[in-house]
Specification:
Mean pLDDT: 91
InterPro entries: SpoIIM-like
Protein name: Stage II sporulation protein M
Order of helices and strands: HHHHH
Radius of gyration: 17 Å
Keywords: Membrane, Transmembrane, Transmembrane helix
Oligomer: single chain
Number of helices: 5
Distance between the termini: 43 Å
Strand content: under 5%
Shape: globular
């Protein structure tokens, strides 16, 4: 069991570092690139069951694309982590620049921590590859199940709770 923990945590650490480096790059690019962000509290899909399903299915789609990295030389996992980290960095810089970071942090973090954790778990499985999955079936199954639960909780929070935090 100790080898499983060491192996998994190594892949998790790699995923974590990759995501945060991409986010820092997004922050830096945000400083040098002139871009406009549009803010709207009104969104017809927010606070509805349809909005919940839209967000959930989008997050599950991203999660399974990350998992595809298990079979396709880790490319989808790396691209997804870098893209999402970079976009998050750009968004955080845009909110900071416009003086809205403090107001937006709680709603974003309320669901974002769960969402990003699930994506990092998926990337950890993908980076471990087929050999990791084959040797650690139970751990992999538990990680997959836990990740899906995290994504369901994140979608619920994003749909019904984050809107209340603004």
């Amino acid at each position: 069991m100790r080898v499983v923990n060491r192996g998994f945590w190594f892949f998790f650490l790699v995923s974590f570092i990759m995501f945060w480096i991409a986010m820092l790059i997004g922050l830096i690019f945000g400083y040098y690139i002139d871009f406009q962000m549009e803010y709207s509290k009104q969104n017809s899909s927010l606070n509805t069951i349809d909005g919940f399903y839209d967000i959930l299915f989008n997050n599950l789609k991203v999660f399974f694309i990350i998992l595809l990295g298990t079979f396709i030389w880790k490319i989808p996992s790396v691209l997804n982590l870098v893209y999402n980290g970079g976009i998050l960095g750009l968004v955080f810089y845009g909110l900071y620049r416009d003086g809205l970071l403090y107001l937006s942090l709680a709603p974003i973090l309320a669901h974002g921590v769960l969402e990003i954790t699930a994506f990092l778990f998926g990337a950890s499985i993908a980076f471990g590859g087929c050999e990791f999955i084959k040797n650690h079936k139970r751990v992999t199954a538990l990680l997959l199940l836990f990740s899906v639960v995290l994504l369901v909780a994140a979608a619920y929070i994003e749909t019904f709770i984050s809107i209340l935090l603004f």
